[in-house]
Design goal:
- There is one protein chain.
- With 174 residues, this protein is an alpha/beta fold.
- The protein has a single domain, classed as 3-Layer(aba) Sandwich (Cytidine Deaminase, domain 2).
- It contains 4 helices and 12 strands.
- It has an 8-stranded mixed sheet, sandwiched between helices.
- A hairpin with a 2-residue loop joins β2 and β3.
- The longest helix has 14 residues.
- The two termini are 29 Å apart.
């Protein structure tokens, strides 16, 4: 629907229409490298458990990482062109904060999920975008949210034209 037709009908699409996210292989490689770098101590969870880590009394073994995604929507595809670190990046073991203000062509964010420890100190993976991730994404103007929980695993959420969250969403690495 054109912007003119939408205006005549009295509504404006919240998000441009697209149905797939395309991620360049080089950007996907950088994401994998960032995950490895920020999770390089994943196997040092012995003696740690989730409670001590959540209370902040455990020894942090990994950090979440946040990056801003630059790109554009062309026809029915959102193309991610590159990523850059969020400004004012604050990395914690189970949370990350930062800003993407002023990023030209901002389409969304990428972050990592570190392993956490079970009661026996074994690594557990949080596979995919969490409920909190999806709620934060829904309230943001971003078009796409990506998370990585292992060097070869991605989960993607996108915004539909009406602003609703589509999850999981298709992604192609090219």
């Amino acid at each position: 629907m054109s912007a003119l037709v939408a205006a005549v009908l009295g509504w404006v699409a919240l998000s441009p229409p697209f149905h797939v996210v395309v991620l360049p292989a080089a950007v996907r490689g950088v994401m994998s490298d960032l995950w490895v770098e920020n999770n390089r101590h994943w196997d040092e969870l012995g003696g740690q458990n989730t409670l001590t880590q959540l209370l902040g009394t455990g020894r942090p073994t990994q950090r979440e990482y946040l990056a801003c995604l630059e790109g554009e929507v062309v026809r029915d595809t959102l193309f991610v062109r590159r990523l850059q670190p969020a400004t004012d990046l604050r990395q914690l073991q189970f949370a990350v904060a930062g800003r993407c203000d002023g990023v030209a062509g901002l389409v969304g964010t990428f972050h990592t999920h570190p392993y956490r420890a079970d009661s026996a100190g074994r690594a557990l993976k949080e596979r995919g975008l969490s409920t909190m991730d999806l709620e934060t994404f829904a309230a943001s103007p971003d078009l796409v949210a990506l998370v990585m929980w292992d060097s070869d695993s991605l989960d993607v959420a996108t915004k539909a034209e009406d602003g609703s969250v589509r999850h999981p969403a298709p992604v192609e690495v090219r």
